[in-house]
Amino acid sequence: MNWNHRQAEHSCIAAMLLAMFVAVVMFAGAAIPAQAQTFNVLYNFEGQSENEGQGPWGLVQGTNGYLYGASWGGGKAGEFDGTFFKMSTGGDLTMICAFFAAGKCQKGGDPTSPLAMASNGDFYGLDNGGNVWQISPTAKLKVLTTFDAPGSAPVIQANNGDLYGVNFGGAYNYCYGTCGSVFKLTTSGKATTLYSFCGDPQDGVCLDGQDPELALVQASDGNLYGTTYAGGTDGVNDGYGTIFKITLDGAFTSLYSFPGYTPPSSALIEGPDGYLYGTTATGGTGTYGAGGTFFKTTTGGDVTYLYNFCSLPNCADGSDPQNIYLATDGNFYGTTEFGGTSTGAGLGTVFQITPGGQLTTLVSFDGTNGYGPSTNGSIMQDTNGILYGVTGAGGAGYPNCPGTCGGVIFSLDMGLAPFVETLPTYGKVNAKIKILGTDLTGATSVTFNGTAATFEVASSSEITTTVPEGATTGVVQVVTPNGTLTSNTVFQVP
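The structure assignment produced for this chain is given below.
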């Protein structure tokens, strides 16, 4: 299933990023680490013999308030084609359909990344056959395009409305069709390859990068930024990855080559300070091992390493960080595949880290509460303020694996306040906008940076509105009977 052998070394089972993520609360000052948290396992996947699936990818909040996801395995007894499911925030899970089984999901299967949601409310996924498909919350599935190789990262929707992503295919023979590429895809299915890696290999090395495996991010400058898992100019073996910039039209710039044995392991995330943040799977200067790093980079490729994992005995602070997510308290949350404080386990952690690199280990996995982060999408934040995540393995059946340890869905309550999320996060005057939230019934006011908008409460989790005349770039606020909710991103008005 996985096209890169080194990724398999770092993950038992191989985030949706839509537009620019800027945590509003950070504009008021520095992020402050939270102290209290409540961790709960909400659902245990029982493995491939059960219909619900095995190995969940990440979660995404739908317009109806449910959390949606896909698993890479299960769905039919003894099969590994995967499932499409939804779950309430309380943990009630429903399998909507099994991929490749007779019915609505028959045309897609074996998902290779988390789902992403676009502004139309539908989800977009990739599978092991190189397909990119669109699926509605009720499982109406349409294959949009088929590439010559699969991808392992969710697409993102840029501020021009198109979808952008990466896959392992490419136009050059040196990599035997697997150097990797960046593509653009309209929501109607027209695909364009914007850039193919390794156009000019030097001594067998792809200096511009090779094997893009993590999601792109659109920064506030309008450009896309991403990483590759191999290639670059570090001079070690075939390279350990790069950071690159690419415009929406395909103008490509290689910005940085990771030093030897430090491949990237999280999609880049832009902070409100304009830096892009990420992690490496290994490397660094941890006292007790090269357990990976947390870093930031300018959009010009000037990288600063902020934290070295395995800095505590027995790597109690975790090793092999993955899947960071920027929450509304201004802190990043992520998982590690190894390390932690569970006796005899070392099965990874959930951590919080400030933009300055102050790390707090929140949870140590012991197997029964999961292990094995799910690449590209372990943690997200619901509009109720609570963080939700998945693991690719483990669960209540541990250690009686395989077969009963198909991963878990967990919640992490850090005491963060509810908020609203706009879909999309940009729009001209009169553009149609969805506002997602919790307990929106009875809302009395919607404003775009202080400018009042007409609106309709479609449900307790969705408001439909249009960008009002006079609106300017800023936060969106919704007044409800329970208080005022502020958007987790700055809404961009061109």
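Interim note for the steering committee: The chain has one helix and 37 strands. Residues 421-486 form a domain with the Immunoglobulin-like fold (CATH 2.60.40.10).
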